[in-house]
């Protein structure tokens, strides 16, 4: 008797690979006159898009900030905080723009 023949079928469990899809999402420019409402709107879009990580939210907001707005948060952008970067960015912008 020779070696067993491979009939292409296997008793092994099929491998399942998880796939993560990216959702195209770009927030509108920041609304200077109503920054809290702007954050409410994009947080709704984050929810619909399945975006829940602080770092991902942070990196979606930073590119839509104009130069004069970036000056309020330049330290956070240059050296992203390890803890709650989006929340820190959001709170700073709300505080700074509410006073202006």
UniProtKB/TrEMBL annotation:
<dbReference type="InterPro" id="IPR055469">
    <property type="entry name" value="DUF7041"/>
</dbReference>
<dbReference type="Pfam" id="PF23055">
    <property type="entry name" value="DUF7041"/>
</dbReference>
<feature type="domain" description="DUF7041">
    <location>
        <begin position="28"/>
        <end position="100"/>
    </location>
</feature>
<protein>
    <recommendedName>
        <fullName>DUF7041 domain-containing protein</fullName>
    </recommendedName>
</protein>
